[in-house]
Write a sequence for this structure.
């Protein structure tokens, strides 16, 4: 029986040797301390992510103690049982996704380019070249937040307040009434957020020719024609504004560390910016911030040689799948010329990351500008987030270097 403990410091520092050993010994592994199946092969992970008949994204959709606890917390929270796309299944997921997809068309993504470039330039201009700086708090995190809120259509002056409301509502959904004041704060946030959105809607209706074509306009229109309910609009805005911030910021931090540890690849990329799109894909495969995706068995189902029982949780280890030698030749090599690089860092199937095109654009621009400005930078300190579900850095200090 394999011994898998993702809470050890050694795993957080470098999980891939441990995941390699687990995949080789027991690719579908029951882990009692986590109370979940750990799946590490690319083929099995891909199969589960596509199998919506046997696996749900919603823990409350299957009979289990964990699902019951999640349902209890949702009962206590404002908007607790309003559907969130990331934790929903067809047909509700299909209906909501069809609406919000209109805000993430290729044209809408390309329209974000100028804002992202301006944001990156403004951030980097504030960073002195004569001292180390903290990448996560000074660049990666504010860039991720501003990019998605700008894309949604939130005025810059309201970024802080919008984010505070969103965090209050999601905290109540996650914790329920277990923490005093959390549910009450969420109720107030919900009321204030509805008032705020109503005010924005009135302003846009008063000047329709000046109203931007953004995610908020798409969702307001869907409310007007009753395709979605106001509560669903609010929950979608909250989910979109929060879901991708952490992983996108972590992806940038992970990429900066990987390039520092692979100076030949860094020099190649700095000398050929045209490689940025494929380099971003390879960096995402190499060290994915979305380290796993949870699914819940609707019924007994066989995966590999093991039988997963109805109600059990499955941790689809996308980080392990992306380093599976059965799928990727020399998986531990950073190779910007890799062919057919279909990694699972954005998921797969109906839950493929809605914001993936925006994240890709953001990472390409940010990495390109970063290399131009900081050249042969040096990683001074790197502290990983103590969470095996996400792989990324809580802090990353780099020292600018000579131009490449």
């Amino acid at each position: 029986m394999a011994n898998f403990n993702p809470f050890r410091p050694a795993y957080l520092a470098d999980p891939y040797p441990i995941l390699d050993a687990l995949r080789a010994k027991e690719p579908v592994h029951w882990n009692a301390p986590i109370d979940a199946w750990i799946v590490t092969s690319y083929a099995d992970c891909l199969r589960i992510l596509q199998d919506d008949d046997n696996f749900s994204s919603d823990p409350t959709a299957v009979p289990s103690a964990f699902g019951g606890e999640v349902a209890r917390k949702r009962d206590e929270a404002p908007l607790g049982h309003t559907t969130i796309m990331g934790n929903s299944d067809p047909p509700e997921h299909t209906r909501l996704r069809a609406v919000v997809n209109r805000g993430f068309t290729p044209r809408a993504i390309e329209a974000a380019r100028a804002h992202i470039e301006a944001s990156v330039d403004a951030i980097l201009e504030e960073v002195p070249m004569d001292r180390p700086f903290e990448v996560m708090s000074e660049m990666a995190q504010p860039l991720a937040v501003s990019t998605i809120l700008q894309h949604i259509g939130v005025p810059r002056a309201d970024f802080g307040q919008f984010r505070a409301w969103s965090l209050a509502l999601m905290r109540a959904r996650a914790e329920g009434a277990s923490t005093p004041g959390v549910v009450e704060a969420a109720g107030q946030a919900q009321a204030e957020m509805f008032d705020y959105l109503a005010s924005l809607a009135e302003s846009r209706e008063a000047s329709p020719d000046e109203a931007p074509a953004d995610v908020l306009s798409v969702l307001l229109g869907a409310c007007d024609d009753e395709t979605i309910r106001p509560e669903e609009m609010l929950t979608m805005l909250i989910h979109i504004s929060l879901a991708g911030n952490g992983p996108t910021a972590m992806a940038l931090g992970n990429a900066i560390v990987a390039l520092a540890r692979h100076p030949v690849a860094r020099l190649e990329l700095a000398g050929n910016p045209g490689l940025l799109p494929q380099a971003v894909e390879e960096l995402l495969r190499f060290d994915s911030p979305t380290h796993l995706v949870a699914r819940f068995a609707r019924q007994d189902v066989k995966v590999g040689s093991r039988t997963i029982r109805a109600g059990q949780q499955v941790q689809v280890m996308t980080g392990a799948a992306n380093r599976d030698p059965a799928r990727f030749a020399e998986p531990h090599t950073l190779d910007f010329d890799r062919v057919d690089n279909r990694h699972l860092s954005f998921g797969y199937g109906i839950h493929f990351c809605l914001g993936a095109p925006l994240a890709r654009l953001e990472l390409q621009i940010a990495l390109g500008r970063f290399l131009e400005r900081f050249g042969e930078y040096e990683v001074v300190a790197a502290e990983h987030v103590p969470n095996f579900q996400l792989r990324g850095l809580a802090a990353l200090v780099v020292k600018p270097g000579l131009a490449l």
The CA atoms of residues 145 and 245 lie 6 Å apart. Strands lie at 28-31, 36-39, 55-56, 133-134, 293-297, 301-303, 306-308, 313-316, 378-384, 393-399.
